[in-house]
Amino acid sequence: MSTWGGTSKAFHWLGAAFIFYLLIHGFWMVGLPRDLRFSHYETHAAAGYLFIALTLARLAWRWTHAVPPQPPGAARWEVIAAHAGHWGLYALMLAAALSGWALAGTFKRPLDSFFGWFSVPGIVPAGSAWRHEMLEEAHELLAWTLALLVVAHVAAALYHWLWRKDDVMQRMLR
Question: Which residues, other chains included, contact 59 with Cβ-Cβ below 8 Å and sequence gap of 6+?
């Protein structure tokens, strides 16, 4: 196999769209006046719940399907960096999303609606302000870390395309 399969590509690009939406929406909405934020928090949380399900399905797919080999002549550090980068992205996607889910349960009115269709149970009981603050800071830190790793991932793809001139980036595009 020299390219990613269609399902893997769909998971990748749908996940990328969710990440960009959630990061941009998240950083934007916290700057809104307090009285306007809650409806955006609800939408953000519902999209986050969907992202968790998508990410878990993606991981199940990844663990049960072959992946393209590293390009010929890849240095050991590149192979290690690629594996660390990919698994770091998966870990941060889940950590950021799960910290958001935990945070959603700490609001005075929990963010437990999945777009009004059904309720999502909380994973952290509603509690004190310190718990909310701690989870809010963790969620923000994880989101920024994920954003930085996404930038590194895009830079690595461009490195393969423009510097190494191999097909690593094209495998996800064609």
Answer: 90
Name the H helices within 2-128: 6-29, 34-64, 76-104
Taking the CB of residue 134, how many other CB atoms lie within 10 A of it? Answer: 15
Question: The pTM is what?
Answer: 0.91
pLDDT tens digit sequence for 87-108 = 999 999 999 999 999 999 898 8
- Nearest Cα to Cα of residue 150 among 82, 79, 89: 89
Residue the block writes with tokens 């963790």: 138
* Total residue count of the chain as it appears in this document: 174
Task: CATH number for 6-173: choose from 1.20.950, 1.10.10, 2.30.30, 1.10.3470.
Answer: 1.20.950
CA 27 to chain centre: 14
pLDDT digit string (tens) for 123-146? 887 777 788 899 999 999 999 999
- What is the CA angle 131-140-122, rounded to 5? 45
